[in-house]
Amino acid sequence: MAxxxxxxxxxxxxxxxxxxxxxxxFDCRLLKVDIEGSIAHSSxxxxxxxxxxxxxxxxxxxLYRIQDDVEGGRLQITDEYEDVHSFVExxxxxxxxxxxxxxxTGRSRNDQVALDMRLYTRxxxxxxxxxxxxxLGVIYxxxxxxxxxxxxxxxxxxxxxxxxxxxxxxxYFEMFKRDRGRLSDIRKRLNECPxxxxxxxxxxxxxxxxxxxxxxxxxxxxxxxxxxVSDRDYLxxxxxxxxxxxxxxxxxxxxxxxxxxxxYRFVELDDAYSTGSSxxxxxxxxxxxxxxxxKTGRVYGSLMGILTTMKGLPLAYNKDMQEDxxxxxxxxxxxxxxxxxxxxxxxxxxxxxxxxxxxxxxxFTNATDLADYLVGKGVxxxxxxxxxxxxxxxxxxxxxxxxxxxxxxLKGFAKEIQEDVYNAIALKTCVDRRLTKGAPGQAxxxxxxxxERIYLEGVE
Length: 460
Hints:
With 460 residues, the protein is mainly alpha-helical. The chain has 20 helices and four strands. It has helices at residues 15-21, 24-27, 31-47, 53-71, 84-96, 98-101, 109-145, 165-190, 209-215, 225-230, 233-260, 287-310, 324-347, 353-360, 367-376, 381-398, 407-411, 421-424, 427-432, 442-458; strands spanning 150-155, 158-164, 267-268, 350-351.
């Protein structure tokens, strides 16, 4: 058992206790950021005259060689070490001797862990942001190609009014745009450096905390050392944002699943993103969409787990905080995989445009437009609403759509109805007349897509 803190103890830690206390099994993924932080810390120690230039050079060379050897498979991270931090420091001392023992000067494992998690979380946040940008590009491409693809819009999972595929997917485009905005906001609050906070009360060494913060790409050093080692708000915010991203993906997945059903037949999934049945040869299952929907609960669970862990912790650092990692790592991995796979599935999907338009023609989706037509003829809206309700009831009894009624039948409900009614309630007219900002009409959707094109060109 490799421990760096045994001086005060008279006997070794029980093996079971050591295993229970250890985090090497999951925090090994922090190796690269741990070395990054140690290089910045040792550079600052050198600048402040706490270690010599030669000692700093040896430390840097040793750290880089450890990283190269791990990445090259020549050095294994084993469970004889308590955590990745002790692994790095122990191997550094073994390789360069006395200078390696000076690396931890002015630093506690508490602020070291806090730094590593911030660096790692920042990297994963940037990764998720990039994946969302790529997904938005896929959605935009589908919208651009389907500006006039008519489909039914729904409320309460019932056909409501005709819209377009571009308009429908535009709602998800806006959701994922907001997700990226949340990530950008979180990054601003995350981007403060805890290094130099020590165990909880700083240090007596003349550290330059702003120097290490700048070296590591932070906006500055955290202002309170107790907050520096005990804050996990940035992680809670990130997991909350991931939970919302997954909720958006899950809603979208639910629609793909519905649209893929035989009752809808709006889409055809690519074979590469579908599976079959072991017993039913006709099946083509939307497994990716279903897994994304299912994994949403997994990310929710990670968020709730860390919230529950943090809720009763007094200041400053407590060992409970070791529990911030496994759930967070899993949520980050899960969300990244789901966004990536969902984008692949969406980019290869085929839309059954004739079927979508035919579906929009059923369910009386043009009923509101008939009411608006009557209003245009001078009928008060509330009266028009009642008239159209009776028209719909008549059509249900007759088993037809509104536009299949003869002019005489329609005039029987309202004398104001004229021959122009058929153009007024045609699906294309119903869509194109909706020109308010955010609506599916041609002019409105063109303006929307131009705005989103500019957004995509400007995002990093």
